[in-house]
């Protein structure tokens, strides 16, 4: 992950954490104990629903509540499938191992050609 993505992810998480804490503080400030706990739980659920709604909209789903189930799981599945296929090439890693003695590419512990157990990693 690039540094910009990490920075943006951390800032986004800090923003939502600050929103949760601000809502909790405001509710605790103005209401007595049993009411503030119930209202804080409701507020956290509503904020969580809103965050998921924004995420679904960011995926490109026009109206997430229009389907029977409420979500278009095909688009979400495609998102995760594309991330997995980008990082793993159909179950095989992109790392290649080469024997340091003869240079033969293999994935065994010992080289099938010369029997050496020394290998180097190449991309």
List the helices and strands and how they pair.
Elements (H helix, E strand, L loop, with lengths): L2 H28 L2 H27 L13 H15 L8 E4 L19 E4 L1
Antiparallel strand pairs: 1-2
Helix pairs in contact: 1-2
Structure characterization notes:
- This protein is mainly alpha-helical and 123 residues long.
- It has 2 domains: 3-87, no CATH class; 93-123, no CATH class.
- It contains 3 helices and 2 strands.
- Strands 1-2 form a two-stranded antiparallel ribbon.
- It is elongated, with a radius of gyration of 25 Å.
How many angstroms separate the termini? Answer: 18 Å
If strands are numbered along the chain, what order do they take across the biggest sheet?
A: 1-2
- Strand percentage: 5-15%
What is the number of helical segments per DSSP (H or I, 4+ residues)? 3
Q: What structural class should be given to the helix and strand makeup?
A: mainly alpha
Overall spatial form: elongated
How do the helices and strands follow one another from N- to C-terminus?
HHHEE
Mean pLDDT across residues: 76
Radius of gyration: 25 Å
């Amino acid at each position: 992950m690039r540094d910009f993505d990490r920075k943006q992810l951390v800032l986004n998480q800090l923003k939502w954490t600050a929103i949760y804490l601000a809502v909790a503080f405001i509710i605790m400030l103005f209401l007595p104990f049993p009411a503030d706990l119930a209202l804080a739980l409701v507020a956290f659920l509503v904020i969580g629903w809103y965050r998921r709604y924004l995420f679904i909209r960011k995926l490109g789903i026009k109206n997430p509540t229009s389907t029977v189930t409420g979500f278009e799981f095909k688009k979400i599945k495609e998102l995760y499938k594309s991330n997995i296929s980008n990082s793993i090439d159909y179950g095989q890693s992109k790392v290649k191992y080469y024997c340091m003695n003869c240079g033969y590419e293999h994935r065994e512990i010992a080289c099938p050609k010369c029997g050496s157990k020394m290998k180097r990693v190449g991309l």
